[in-house]
Amino acid sequence: MTEPPKPPSRSHARLSIAASAKPRNLMDGPPRLKGAWRAKIITLFPEAFPGTLGLSLTGRALDFGLWALETIDLRPFGEGRHKNVDDNPAGGGAGMVLRADIVAKALSAAAEGTPPDRALWPVIYLSPRGKPFNQTMAHRFAAAEGLTLLCGRFEGVDQRVLDAYEVEEVSLGDFVLTGGEIAAQALIDATVRLIPRVLGNQASAEEESFSDGLLEFPQYTRPTLWQGRAIPEILLSGHHAKIADWRRGMAERLTKERRPDLWRAYCAKHGRDPEEDQEL
Ligand code: SAH
Q1: Residue 276 domain-assigned?
Q2: Residue 128 CB less than 6 A away from ligand 1
Q3: Cis preceding-peptide flag for 4 (omega within 30 of 0)
Q4: What is the pLDDT of residues 98-154, one digit of tens each?
């Protein structure tokens, strides 16, 4: 097995930019490494970014230029003295809808300097009506050069601009958020951690939940005995093959119990009987 790539060292000159309470200025941010993955986010609330993406591993990778973030404020594209971006829904009903012409101007601005091929540069509208986001999608997005994310607000976006710009709709799950910003951060977080060197130890991305269609096995750490509860003995045995067997067995059992949908797909892929008993 090859050694996983070493995480960028903390003492490296580029990382000497100390953490500060001041928000990172996105425009004057550190130069991104050539060809680094990029996210362009169209939002009425640019101040929501980088948000949690500026913390921990994703934040360090952002400082290091392994990926880059650009927010495009929707407001200046609005019309009139108040820079209106929305209007009443055609056909009546509650709420407001983001206007096609205004959103189109922002999408065109975002398209500058990006490949028109949607496979190389997906253009996404975060939407509860979209295809549910999953790890396979995160891999597809991480393999692209970058992506544009449109964050909706109010009742959403005029359908015509989604059709005209071949926008892919992606949902975070079967619930309704107030806006697309949290969904965009979740999508970006899951995607950038798959970019090489963003996680210190790439092996952890290969072993975790969903990587083989299974949920992850239970994890333990010290103390070995806590409130009368011991760590499963096998994990302290130093017997790597047996530990790997135990972990796979636990991952299978958990997946079967908690996610019958994933379990059936896994069994079909591996030619297994989904009804077979788990030995452990
Ligand atoms: N009226 C819409 C919901 C609008 S919620 C409907 O019923 O489908 C306002 C915005 O929040 C949406 O435009 C979308 O960008 C975002 N949003 C809400 N729920 C979401 C989810 N589950 N996944 C992704 N984005 C979501």
Answers
A1: no
A2: yes
A3: no
A4: 999 999 999 999 999 999 999 999 999 999 999 999 999 999 999 999 999 999 999
Assess whether the C-beta atom of 152 lies below 6 angstroms from ligand 1: yes
How many Å apart are CA 187 and CA 171, to the nearest integer?
9
Number of domains in the chain: 2
- Tokens for 193, please give them: 């951690």
Q: pLDDT digits over 219-251, tens only?
A: 999 999 999 999 999 999 999 999 999 999 999
Pocket perturbation via mutation, ligand 1, pick of 176, 185, 188, 189 by most ligand atoms within 8 A of CB: 176
User: Are 179 and 40 contained in the same domain?
Assistant: yes
Query: What's residue 206's pLDDT?
Result: 75
Domain assignment of residue 137, given as a range? 13-192
What is the SS3 assignment for 246? helix
For the CA of 170, the closest atom of ligand 1 is: 24
SS3 66: coil
Q: Give distance in angstroms: CA of 97 to centre of ligand 1.
A: 12
Is the same domain home to 223 and 253? Answer: yes
Closest C-alpha to ligand 1, atom 2: 155
